[in-house]
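Example record for the data management plan.
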Amino acid sequence: MRRLFVLLAGALACGGGSALQAGTDLPSDSLYHVQTRLLTQSGKAVGFDVKRGHPTLVSMFYGSCPAACPMLITSMQVYESRLLPAARSRLRVLLVSFDAARDTPQQLEKLASLHHIDRTRWTLASASEADARKIAAGLGFSYRPLPDGTFDHSLLITLVDGQGRVVAATTTLVDDSQFLAKLQDATAKDGP
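Corresponding structural encoding:
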């Protein structure tokens, strides 16, 4: 957890040109301070804080990934399926692609359909290389392009609260009982 905050502080300090949002009421350790532009599966431009106000599962991926990313999406669906319906209704999911050239809104929409995601709570979006790097730095997520057009990347799911503070993170796609407990606690609280 400390590593994520150190990476966030570094991302904010160096920022790659990003600045803190003026006049916000966000806590200092909020990931939502990182200003980015994302393009969603519906073609809408949004910020990284698109799910602000809700506990949110966040991860990064690329749509043409042959194995790991589909497993990541399924894992996130399994984690949310273990929540009571009221808690699940409070949860949001944000998946950010680091392959904007291929992950157009149309491709993201196809992926959303393929995985039967709940578009009222889930957002698939792509980010420019610069914005993807800022988000990855804040999350502690790593990726790199390979010569064959695929990517080597970590498998990390991060839970943030409604203000963008990291609550928990896991690299366990099958069953992380501690992560699930934090997810249940974060979504059991009264929310929007």
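Summary line stored alongside the record: The helical segments are 2-14, 68-81, 85-90, 105-114, 129-139, 177-188.
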